[in-house]
Design brief:
The complex is a heterodimer of chains A (114) and B (114). Chain A is mostly beta strands. Chain A has no helices and 11 strands. In chain A, strands 2, 4, 5, 9, 10 and 11 form a 6-stranded mixed β-sheet that branches. In chain A, 38% of the residues are buried. Chain B is mostly beta strands and 114 residues long. Chain B has no helices and 11 strands. In chain B, the strands form 2 sheets. In chain B, strands 2, 4, 5, 6, 9, 10 and 11 form a 7-stranded mixed β-sheet that branches. Chain B has a 4-stranded antiparallel β-sheet with strand order 1-3-8-7, with no helix packed on it. In chain B, strand 5 and strand 6 form a beta hairpin. Chain B is globular, with a radius of gyration of 13 Å. The termini of chain B are far apart. The chains are: A mainly beta (114), B mainly beta (114).
Chain lengths: 114, 114
Amino acid sequence: AQSVTQLGSHVSVSEGALVLLRCNYSSSVPPYLFWYVQYPNQGLQLLLKYTSAATLVKGINGFEAEFKKSETSFHLTKPSAHMSDAAEYFCAVRRGGGADGLTFGKGTHLIIQP
Amino acid sequence: DTAVSQTPKYLVTQMGNDKSIKCEQNLGHDTMYWYKQDSKKFLKIMFSYNNKELIINETVPNRFSPKSPDKAHLNLHINSLELGDSAVYFCASSLMGSGTDTQYFGPGTRLTVL
């Protein structure tokens, strides 16, 4: 079964510094991978998705992620953190086909220090 | 022009009561989901429906009964509420066969059982 593991329940970076949120996946088939962001008391917003079309995926708000099959990773990065990036970030993998839904990682809380 | 909407946003009730949460999407999607987010922010799928038919039921207690009157709506009725049902419930939708079946989430319903 497909699964994802997010390393680090909390990540703290200074404003302007590089953001790196880690996600490793386990899948017996080529995975469909997603990053979602959840701002306080809000729903989940799609940041980006990997569909096998390109290994480097660009998303909204300056985020991007690189799919590395050899490392089974899909880490999320942003070159320069902004205070508004403070939120919970979830990596997710499609469970199967059709309407099987997503399996989420446990989330990483991103803290931006001024 | 909200894509996925849920009502109510907050729900506070006593143990043993019965309550419903409604979800509507105007994206033209054919698949809808319910997810539960616990106090540690862990997200887990509960149900999925495709064209009004139940596809996934992730060992959810019988007290939870989803109903899909049409492709644009998926409601969740919960009988005999228990303290452990306190959580945030998210509705999501996707279009099957659209490649990644990307899911779009509603704003969530925070259920508190006293």
